[in-house]
Known about the structure:
It is a single chain. By secondary structure, the chain is mainly alpha-helical. The protein has a domain at 1-31. It is built from 6 helices and 3 strands, in the order ααααβββαα. The chain has helices at 2-30, 36-39, 49-58, 73-80, 117-124, 150-157, and strands spanning 87-89, 107-109, 112-114. It has a 3-stranded antiparallel β-sheet with strand order 1-3-2, with no helix packed on it. The N and C termini lie far apart (71 Å).
Amino acid sequence: MLKKKNKIIIYISLIISVIIAIFLFLNFFFKKEVTASSNGIENFPDSYKPYLEELAKKHQNWTFIALYTNLDWDYVIKNETVFGKNLVPKNYSDNWKNTTPGQYNVEVDSGWVDSSDQAVEYCMDPRNFLNEIRIFQFEMLSYDSNTNNLNSIEKILYGTEFYEQKVSYLDSNRKYN
């Protein structure tokens, strides 16, 4: 009786192993690889690509759209580092603060002091925020009929109390929609 149970366990293990091997084989050979040409990464400067490619591996349905501002980096930084324009909390480390004599720890606003050039450069460089948490600050918020529709909204709301529910709201003319 024990030999029969052992044989059954061995056969089941073999069957499971074969199923897993088939799955891995199919997944390896037929899985669509995300490429730069399929998600917009090719339109970005080379220094952005490693960050975006890492995100694309994790989120294969994401599309990346480059926005060219035609602004000169040095010009922008020079104009953003004017005393009092960009502030940090006074309790931040000196690395974040302007340490120029006469400007160091001068409260521009209650509890706020001028930031350092390095802090401004860090915050202005999008590459420092190309990760799963901070990338959403670059999300395109303009209307797109391909994604801003009832079907897409229902996908987002799936699993919540709002899924397949009608919501009424007042518009700017104080009428319910």
